[in-house]
Amino acid sequence: MSLDGDGPIAADFVIRNAWIVTMDANRQIWRDGALAVAGDRIVAVGPTAQVMAQVTARDVIDGSRFVLTPGLVNCHVHITGEPITRGYVPDDTDWRTNVFDWLIPTYMAQTPAEEQLAATLASVEMLKNGVTTFIEAGTILDLPAVMEAVDAVGIRGRLGQWIQDRAFAPTDDQATLTRDAIVRLESQLDRWPVADDKRLAAWGCLVGHNTATDDLWRAATSMVRERGLGITAHMSADPADPDYYLATTGKRALLHLEELGALGDHLSLTHMIHLDDAEVAAVTRSAMRVTHCPLTAMKGGYGVTSHGKFPEMQAAGVPIQLGTDGNNNGNIADLMRAMYLLAGLFKDARRDGDLFPAHAVLECATLHGAAAAGLAGTVGALVPGMKADFVAHDRNRPEWTPLLNVINQLVWSADGRGVHSVWVDGQRLVDNYRMTNVDEEALYASVQAAAPGLIARAGKTIPCAWPVA
């Protein structure tokens, strides 16, 4: 807690008598704590008696029902296309069929209005599951429309139109494709800069895999480093990625990117399952970041438990953060489900209960995620001076009763269904399980009405193993 100065601290509101998981430098937990907010910032955190003695607040909220945590950070989520086609992709296809025969046609069939609708739904779903900041996976075709939709909901995010340039058709002009991709990336980074304390900004969102030429990797890396931004991209979810790089460059994917100078703390690569030991060493040397999406890995049969080297990367100090991806998961927004899986998958796969303890998993979902979004010291912890982005988990639920070890219960017992209230920039966007600034019924009705048309334009039907009358 920081309560400096002689006079009282003025606050807009204070929540008192709550459990508070601060994620501060000492990882302090208060069993009877208070948190005070002025404007968009936290101004005091500590024992209730001490905070209440030094804070003058316009509003006092009884927090005895709550466990307060920092807002979660989702570092890889597809917010267009998949949210409004939830569940229609079959779960008995391989990775290539899933992506190229189902997901890509869905992305390309969207209209700007549908992208806005999907982005609104995804933002609402994330907030209602305790996610206050996200990094878009880069599936956006109409970035201005999506920025507008996300801004209206109030979540914090780093977004970008997907960028790729590799010529796949014999008639493609490689030089033109590369030039256009670089111009497009530079344009969006200039239009939506990380400036003026805004919640939303553009990010370097490369598709990844084998879709970017060496020239694009070099240009994008230089561009984001000059601006102090980051790049997110998919890599090595399937052996196809290392196989491609071996066949075309003589080196596996991460070793080739290292040779290009593309690795570094600006870079977050998602999936990263099919790596060898030399690639893990390259990741470690570079201080780059890795985003694990356990929900998608399981649904897609990526081989994460048999091939994934996440325990080795964690042991080497590689920053690991979490994402929910898309891949038509049932829930693309509940990062708490991803925490649960990260805590358990490798314990079982390696028969080692020491791997990914709950406290380390919570760091992945908060502090590591904040750093990946370029927001270290701004979000990810409940510390005076940081943004007032936080979640009130409802203790009046069976999974929270009795409350004994709050970290274990956050990871192993709770999930997004227990998120009672959420604040971003000091604004209460979720109150008693309901959005405060979105007509949820109207949104859900619009999504239900839009989905069949999008699926039809993608040339797909909705498969089901059993007859539906």
Automatic annotation (TrEMBL):
Gene3D superfamilies: Metal-dependent hydrolases, Urease, subunit C, domain 1. InterPro entries: Amidohydro-rel, Metal-dep_hydrolase_composite, Metal_Hydrolase, MQNX/HUTI_composite_N, MTA/SAH_deaminase. One of its GO terms (molecular function) is hydrolase activity. The keyword DNA-binding does not apply. It comes from the Bacteria. Keywords: Hydrolase, Metal-binding, Zinc. Residues 33-54 form the Aminodeoxyfutalosine deaminase/Imidazolonepropionase-like composite domain. It holds the Pfam family Amidohydro_1. Residues 67-428 form the Amidohydrolase-related domain. Belongs to the metallo-dependent hydrolases superfamily. ATZ/TRZ family. This is Cytosine/adenosine deaminase-related metal-dependent hydrolase. It comes from Novosphingobium capsulatum.
